[in-house]
Design a protein that fits this description.
Length: 162
């Protein structure tokens, strides 16, 4: 019992002293719906701190007073820091909503009228304005194939061919 307590105490202490900053971005082409479906997973605290830097409105991700305002702020931030280029053309995506899952927030987006995704280019600097140890993990799915790339600060671009 004492060993377990010591282990958890040391693990917690290390997490405080050496935090990690990571987001996960899933991008999927849905041929039936002719759309690109995206989800962006960010730690609640990191997302809240970052959004708060760009607005005078109080941002509370866990208990938002007005979900529409938070959706709008997420849309503004993500669309400024994540560009997705499908078949050589930047796509316009809109937020569908967000939800919490434990310590993370999942933000959902969709772009319409995308017939195919033969190439997908990414320009992403999500949370680079918060932390210079940020890592963005990108998963892209198209034509039944999934490819993954890890962007470490300051790198911001990745390209996928299907």
């Amino acid at each position: 019992m004492v060993n377990i307590l010591i282990h958890w105490t040391l693990t917690s202490l290390l997490a405080i002293l050496h935090p990690f900053f990571v987001s996960v971005i899933d991008i999927t082409h849905n041929p039936k719906e002719r759309s690109i479906e995206m989800s962006v997973r960010i730690f609640n605290e990191d997302l809240e701190k970052t959004l708060q830097k760009y607005t005078s409105t109080k941002i509370d991700i866990l208990q938002p007073a007005n979900r529409d305002v938070v959706n709008e702020e997420i849309q503004k931030y993500i669309s400024k820091h994540l560009t997705v280029i499908v078949n050589g053309k930047p796509i316009a995506y809109k937020i569908i909503g967000f939800e919490q899952q434990k310590e993370s927030t999942w933000c959902y987006f969709e772009a319409q009228n995308i017939n195919s995704a033969n190439t997908v280019g990414i320009d992403c600097d999500i949370l680079y304005d918060l932390e210079n140890t940020q890592v963005n993990i990108i998963h892209v799915k198209s034509k039944g194939t999934e490819k993954t790339y890890k962007l470490d600060y300051p790198n911001r671009t990745a390209n996928f061919t299907f």
